Amino acid sequence: MFSRYFPILIWARDYDRETLVNDLIAAIIVTIMLIPQSLAYALLAGLPPEVGLYASIAPLVIYAIFGTSRTLAVGPVAVASLMTAAAVGELAVQGTPEYIAAAILLAFLSGLMLTLMGLLRLGFLANFLSHPVISGFITASAIIIAAGQIKNLTGIPIEGHNLLQILESLFARIDQFNLDTALIGLGAIVFLYWARRKLKPLLKKAGLSERLADIGVKMAPILSITATTLVVFLFSLDHVGVLVVGAIPNALPAPAIPAFDAALWRELAMPALLISIVGYVETVSVAQTLAAKRRQRIDPDQELIALGTANLGSAVSGGFPVTGGFSRSVVNFEAGAQTPAAGAFTAIGIAMATVFLTPLIYYLPKATLGATIFVAVLSLVDLKTIRHTFAYSKADFAAMAATILLTLLQGVEIGIITGVAISLFLHLQRTSKPHYAIVGRVPGTEHFRNILRHAVETDPETLSIRIDESLYFPNARFLEDTINSTLAADPAIKNVVLMCPAVNFIDASALESIEALNERLHDNHVRLHLSEVKGPVMDRLKRTSFLQKLGGNIYLSQNDAFEDSRI
Amino acid sequence: MFSRYFPILIWARDYDRETLVNDLIAAIIVTIMLIPQSLAYALLAGLPPEVGLYASIAPLVIYAIFGTSRTLAVGPVAVASLMTAAAVGELAVQGTPEYIAAAILLAFLSGLMLTLMGLLRLGFLANFLSHPVISGFITASAIIIAAGQIKNLTGIPIEGHNLLQILESLFARIDQFNLDTALIGLGAIVFLYWARRKLKPLLKKAGLSERLADIGVKMAPILSITATTLVVFLFSLDHVGVLVVGAIPNALPAPAIPAFDAALWRELAMPALLISIVGYVETVSVAQTLAAKRRQRIDPDQELIALGTANLGSAVSGGFPVTGGFSRSVVNFEAGAQTPAAGAFTAIGIAMATVFLTPLIYYLPKATLGATIFVAVLSLVDLKTIRHTFAYSKADFAAMAATILLTLLQGVEIGIITGVAISLFLHLQRTSKPHYAIVGRVPGTEHFRNILRHAVETDPETLSIRIDESLYFPNARFLEDTINSTLAADPAIKNVVLMCPAVNFIDASALESIEALNERLHDNHVRLHLSEVKGPVMDRLKRTSFLQKLGGNIYLSQNDAFEDSRI
């Protein structure tokens, strides 16, 4: 029981030397990958670069304690960073202490919400964000992020959290284009793309093993950072308009709990909830994918607690919202991480980098970080899923298209709220009509089939309806409507048989509905019968007076009903 | 097609003399009943009494044109009046022109929303308010309304929209108790109760027919109004503190469309939505009940349009929100109304009363109206349903209890919002887990049954899962979780068969989920098979590349799969 909330107690028992070595190797590789990403995503969120490093320390240690995935790597990710920038940008000006405080509070609130949802076992709620909607949202967010990087890649001070705003300020300020910045940015993009596509075969040809070649590819961002930092330093490009990261405090901040400010908390509650949902959906889907590859299992409700406490840890240690990241988790997995201890070791690596390496990145050009973000997010643009969804289901595609358009044109918050609303609406619509069929007997058998699809025997005085779903309040009235309309159209009917082989439960609303139906039919001299009622449903009905009031009979099989009403 | 939106075109064709006579008789009886109710419910909503009469004219004529129920009677009702008082009381002081304008705007907004929902065919959304929640809400509202009538029944100027506020101001101002008012109020209550219980047998004993006796009972409120008005007039009780209705304009107001005021519209949007939902749910359920008794049918989406335009009509003619009322519709039905023309005739009756009778009710004591409300709403307190729900389902009872408590202690708005939220939550929770069973073969047959309930044959290397519901995004992940957990626990499994006889559709999310599942199983050297896939589902799957990627086979019957994987 205790270990349900502390999965570390399970894997730590069998922790041995070999696992340690595997975890350490993975941690080194992830650390190297995470440093540029942390700096870049902090920039994307409108925060000083060191905040990205802070968000990559405590959350990883906490996830190692509470997480059920063996290989998930948490930290700052692109979409949550964009959502942070959009939410906090409404309340404070970038670069001010208020802005940083609001971003930290956002992580804190998101952490509280996720932890609470986990304790209440509400993980299922995240399912109500459909795949097409979340996938469309991520694609649109990635496009906004990529477009936004024009700022870092060209020096043009563009602003905005949606495509229209970004393009508008781009054209308004195009005169501030900086050639040196653009050359560094373009160079970094070309290099990173080339490394992604061509470096691995090259390294393998040079005699490196598959695994070492993989590691080599992951080093590319660090290489681009080193190279461009050197170039800026050597040619003093920071004096000709190339923006650099500048001085970064090389100490970890003292832990602090955000102060309570009712107005600010209220303002950030909705964005925090949205970041929580999107972050959680992503986290669980990454964790699920990796766990399944090794026949391990994750506990979705415990993942809420783990992600929630990780965000609380991020906030307390001066970081911003974190999520399970797809690419870094895959790297962690492929680098051979065996347990979440790899994450804790990564945290140590990042902490050391924060203390020792920050002086070295004074001259790191923001253009390089922009290139890192640009290349990373373009892989999130998923045109294939858009195409497939279009081919498979027009309804799902419409939901996806609405989410994409609203996200691009209005911004992430409106985009994701619309997505959630559309998903819920589709769900409510679908479940408000139970699947049912009017049935008749296949001649010579005891089977009953849909009269629309099969040549079957029917009795003109008897209406037999097979309900293919449980009966509960959203579909209760539909059954009433259907039977009432059918009876209004066909005055010959004297018996109605509800065939219930697929009815797993009947809630209080549906019971009331059937009771009303029985009474109305009775007033019209029509008898209501039931057939093939499941045991548990019957047990429950026996607790009520319905069975006494029922105008007709209860039959074990539909065939009994059919034979009987003929008499 | 045209007549879908104008049901009047259907019944007006066959309108004859006999129908006219029946409708006229019903209209006279309903008019007599509706006059005191209209005055009383206006008082309950904190409005001048004449506003109740205005709300009983235009809406009835409009419903006659657009309504699909032959016998529904719309007008002011108790619960909507209380909700109006609660919503408008937040924005303006009772008795001011702003208060009246806000109540009119509330009807207008509610009308716009309902009409729009009807045109978009969103009637199904109302189903998501479960029976126990709406029934609990009405019971709690009725208790608040009854408690609130202590004001009219005793002269103590109590205030408040929830039980706590009412009791608090009652004890604070108990010294303002007025004995004459209390005697009139108590007398009216005792008379109305007596009439309800004892008058009919008495009249029948006196030789009246069943129908005439019924009509006699309906006259009781008018009788109590006449008697108490006379008493106040003769003894000048209005000079000793008995509050009377006073001067009422005896002309109909000029039609006017509410002015647009963005701030006010925004403030009233939520209350208008809540009144719309509650009013619609009640309207449809009354209409449904009465229609079924005569084997007629109603169209729930058209009812939205009818109720919406009725509310627009109420607003334009100076009235407040209206709804289909249960008791007056039953009276209309039992008095023999054949078509909605009866409603239009009732409207003429009310209009004539507004012009000619209003001078006569100057001395009508508010205590009598309070007594009318008190007696009317106590019949809405439905303890039987509370008891039945408790016996039948603890989950439904919990939802009901929460709604009742919050409505009583916090007020109608929070009460109904909580109710809607709980209903939705329960629905989402229930539909996030599809019903499924791990199955095996009943020996000697080709039937497959749940391994937990039957002694069946299974193959240790094969996991056969029968899914009993359609697969869509809210339950897509559940299937993944279930199969992953089972596989993680049992490494012997080499084949997974999804038995899909009850899967009516697979949406894009579920398809993606199954594709991911197939891929993961493949990586683990486990084959995924499908059996008993329905035709339409198969057609759709053929549009995708899933069937090519499927690691296993597709079997027409589960038995084929069982036989085959043994090989």
Features:
6-stranded mixed β-sheet; mainly alpha; 567 residues; 63% helix; homodimer; 2 domains; Transcription Regulator spoIIAA
Strand content of chain A: 5-15%
Instruction: Kindly name the structural category of chain A.
Output: mainly alpha
The average pLDDT value of chain A, as a whole number, equals 89
Percent helix range of chain A: 55-70%
Q: Tell how many strands the DSSP assignment of chain A holds.
A: 8
The domain count of chain A comes to 2
The oligomeric status of these chains comes to homodimer
Please count the helical segments of chain A. 26
Strand order of the largest sheet of chain A: 4-3-5-6-7-8
- Give a short account of the largest sheet of chain A: 6 strands, mixed
**Greatest interface:** A-B, 68 and 68 residues
In one word, what is the shape of chain A? elongated
Distance between the amino and carboxyl termini of chain A: 60 Å
Radius of gyration of chain A: 30 Å
- Low-confidence segments of chain A: none
